[in-house]
Design goal:
Blueprint lengths: L7 H4 L4 H7 L5 H11 L4 H7 L4 H8 L7 H11 L3 H6 L17 H13 L3 H27 L5 E3 L12 E5 L11 E12 L7 E7 H10 L2 E9 L5 E9 L1 H7 L6 E8 L4 H18 L10 H7 L2 E5 L14 H5 L7 E4 L6 E2 L11 E5 L3 E3 L2 E4 L2 E5 L3 E6 L3 E6 L12 E4 L5 H17 L1 E4 L2 E4 L5 H26 L13 H15 L15 E5 L2 E9 L5 E5 L7 E5 L2 E5 L7 H6 L5 H9 L5 H21 L2 H15 L7 H12 L7 H13 L3 H11 L2 H8 L4 H8 L3 H7 L6
Parallel strand pairs: 3-5
Antiparallel strand pairs: 1-2, 2-3, 4-7, 5-6, 6-7, 8-9, 9-10, 11-14, 12-13, 12-18, 14-15, 15-16, 16-17, 18-19, 20-21, 21-22, 23-24
Helix pairs in contact: 4-5, 10-11, 15-16, 19-21, 20-21, 21-22, 22-23, 22-24, 23-24, 24-25
Length: about 725
């Protein structure tokens, strides 16, 4: 029914070759010459306005010299024609097809285009599709060229169609607005056009890029990839998008092999300075990354383990005013960021592996200024976080004041929001709630001598304050309970597990409120571990006269302990059972009490031996923890042992005395003299070997070890003095 509609018989007589070849009637040079003559401008006058010689203009019009993007724009303005007409042809270059369809509405044109297309053979259909795509690319290229030509230092080389498999041309970066060739920089570009409806325009899009193209970009050092959205009906360029496809980013994209990849593209800026920044940053990062293309990148953890990483950095080029920590996030928003590791002895940063593409930056500034409320100091610093969207002032783990970044807004119209969220350890939360209560009561706080007003008088907040008060009272109760057990470590209360909650409630009931413990729930009358988050408590459950078991702090009081052998019960210290691991495990240990405990017992060879062994476990624990209090306590025990020479050998006490001392300082002449005396007089090889180790005579010690059997050697290895032997670089096992 449509075959004769509106002159279809005329349409079918026009070959596709006629249509495709019609646009080749004139070159760019010929079009420029025609436009000049139509504008009635002499060649000399045109050359003068273009700030070029007449010879140069003549060469352009005869196609002996290529035309730069900015030149096309200037020619178009001077001749009062469009840049597209200069690039792609005037109306008279198309075949004279006299039929109404080309003059009707868009629906009629599309019907006739469809009818024509359906009558073509496969070869001509392919030509049409290539032509349509080519036309989109030309419109897209024109949009890119027009955009960058408006800047002072960027220019683009115009390719009339694709000349290379993966690239459409280059953007050139000049030192100044005169576009001199001195120190000129170049970054390859790829341009694609996509026909869309106007409503499809967004700030960010996804566009698929082929594997082979990405591989080529990576090995070449990267490219700036542009996608131009073109209005379907009018052919107008709506929005330019870009992606800086640089080697490191591409390597991450290609980790999963597929034919093509959806890639994030961002709106190309309209501000000319921002355009220059995009191109400069892409070029500079491309140069840094080029030599790493296709190579495995180190991770931050790997560099830290090797101990060679000094810092991490990223690089940004900014055109215009000097940037500061608070403006960096706005400058970097949407831009691809690569992290570089600064390595000891290497002036060039090494790109490190990134789990994802970073496009947002938040800067953090620490200000070492004291925070007061009503003359009481709560904090000695505060933080300011800047993002592209807002600025946050953070005090402690409790108060955040957020001010949005709003362009062209009056200061009075910008609303700061207050967010209270008390987090952190037990002590941090207590301080946070105390601070919030003080701020509420005093309508603000002071940063040194500057008062910051905060009015929290809304009804709903008054209810919150009461809840904060109840929470604070409970937290203080927990702190007092732990202090009563001599716990110095801060409780990590924020991320409690169900088990942590259960054990804390048990501690409150059994120790805080002295409630009895059911026998079946606990092992009784021996050292037990009660773990609450990061704190480990040593406790014991003892049967009282009422027949019930009660919890006791194992390190809170002296307990009568006995070693039973059949019917015989021997009094011992409750701490005899402790090992190196116990000294490292429990957070409620009172070390001075342990030393005193042995002094309360009836002195015997067994008690002396137990005290000596416990002291050695303390020294081993010190070597693991570097807790000086362990050495102090070990010295107290050894001093007490020396008071009983009839129950313990003199050599043992001397060796232990100096192995405690040497862990903190050097041995003096008299100290060494005592050790030499042991070497000369003692018949015990363990004592002699220990003395040699303390004197630094490790070769002599090894001679003794060479005479040991496996069992004897293993026994010596278990002594803490063997650690000093290992520190010399020697090892017997």
């Amino acid at each position: 029914m449509l075959t004769n509609w509106m002159g279809y018989d005329i349409l079918k007589e026009v070959s596709i070759s006629d249509i495709l070849e019609a646009k080749m009637k004139r070159t760019i040079g010929e079009r420029l010459k025609k436009a000049r003559k139509d504008a009635k401008i002499r060649q000399g006058a045109a050359a003068e306005k273009m700030e070029m010689s007449r010879t140069t203009l003549s060469a352009i019009e005869s196609d002996k010299r290529l035309v730069w993007a900015e030149e096309i724009t200037k020619f178009a303005e001077m001749y009062k024609v469009s840049a597209n007409e200069l690039l792609y042809g005037f109306a008279d270059e198309f075949p004279e097809i006299e039929f109404e369809a080309f003059l009707g509405n868009s629906e009629i044109r599309m019907i006739n285009y469809s009818l024509l297309y359906d009558r073509l053979n496969d070869k001509d259909k392919d030509k049409v599709m290539k032509y349509i795509v080519s036309d989109l690319e030309k419109i897209a290229t024109s949009a890119i060229v027009s955009s960058i030509s408006k800047t002072d230092t960027l220019s683009g080389f115009i390719n009339d169609g694709d000349k290379e498999p993966c690239w459409d041309g280059n953007i050139y970066i000049h030192e100044n607005s005169r576009h001199s060739k001195k120190n000129i920089k170049r970054i390859p570009t790829q341009v694609k056009g996509k026909a869309v409806k106007t409503k499809s325009v967004k700030d960010k899009i996804k566009y698929r890029v082929k594997y082979d193209d990405l591989k080529a970009y990576m090995m070449d050092g990267g490219t700036l990839f542009f996608v131009v959205y073109i209005e379907k009906e009018t052919g107008e360029a709506l929005q330019i998008y870009y992606a800086d496809l640089l080697p490191i980013r591409i390597m991450k994209i290609l980790e999963q092999t597929q034919d093509s990849y959806p890639i994030d593209f961002f709106s190309f800026p309209s501000d000319n300075k921002e355009k220059i920044e995009v191109v400069l940053n892409a070029y500079n990062d491309a140069q840094r990354q080029k030599s790493f293309a296709g190579k495995r990148l180190p991770t931050i953890d790997e560099l830290n383990r090797k101990g060679i990483m000094e810092s991490l950095s990223f690089h940004v080029t900014h055109v215009g005013k000097e940037i500061s920590p608070n403006t960096i996030p706005q400058v970097m928003e949407g831009k691809s960021i690569t992290l570089y590791a600064n390595i000891k002895g290497n002036p060039i940063g090494i790109p490190v592996e990134q789990h994802k593409n970073i496009t947002q930056v938040t800067t953090c500034q620490k200000f070492d200024k004291k925070i007061f409320v009503n003359g009481i100091e709560y904090y000695n610093h505060y933080l300011v976080l800047h993002s592209a969207f807002d600025t946050k002032l953070i005090i402690g783990n409790c108060l955040t004041m957020t001010t949005p970044v709003v362009a062209d807004a009056n200061e009075s119209s910008i609303k700061t929001t207050i967010h209270i969220d008390v987090k952190g350890t037990l002590r941090e939360q207590i301080k946070g709630f105390e601070f919030i209560q003080a701020v509420y009561a005093n309508n603000g706080y002071e940063i040194e001598n500057t008062h910051i007003s905060i009015l929290l008088k809304e009804k709903h907040f008054e209810e919150k304050i009461q809840g904060y008060s109840n929470r604070l009272s409970w937290l203080k109760y927990i702190l007092d309970l732990l202090k009563s057990m001599h716990v110095k470590k801060d409780l990590e209360i924020e991320n409690f597990s169900e088990e942590d909650e259960k054990n804390l409630n048990f501690l409150i009931a059994a120790h805080g409120k002295h409630k009895p413990v059911r026998e079946e729930e606990r092992q009784l009358e021996c050292l037990q571990l009660l773990k609450i988050s990061n704190i480990s408590l040593g406790v014991i459950y003892i049967k009282h006269t009422d027949g019930y078991y009660y919890m006791h702090d194992y390190f809170g009081e002296h307990l009568e302990s006995y070693w039973k052998d059949g019917d015989k019960a021997t009094r011992i210290s409750q701490f005899t059972v402790m090992t190196m691991a116990d000294f490292l495990k429990y957070d409620n240990i009172r070390l001075p009490m342990i030393a005193d405990d042995f002094k309360l017992l009836p002195c015997s060879e067994e008690i002396i031996n137990e005290a000596n062994l416990l002291m050695l476990e303390m020294i081993k624990a010190y070597d693991k923890s570097k807790n000086d209090e362990l050495l102090v306590t070990a010295k107290k025990i050894n001093d007490w042992l020396q008071e009983h020479p009839k129950l313990i050998g003199r050599e043992v006490c001397i060796i232990n005395k100096y192995q405690i001392k040497i862990r903190k300082t050097y041995l003096g002449y008299s100290d060494k003299a005592e050790l030499f005396s042991i070497i000369e007089k003692s018949e015990n090889n363990n004592y002699r070997a220990g003395a040699f180790i303390l004197l630094g005579e490790f070769d002599e010690a090894k001679k003794i070890f060479d005479s040991y059997g496996e069992e004897q050697m293993q026994e010596f290895i278990n002594y803490p003095i063997y650690t000093l032997y290992q520190q010399s670089g020697e090892n017997l096992m």
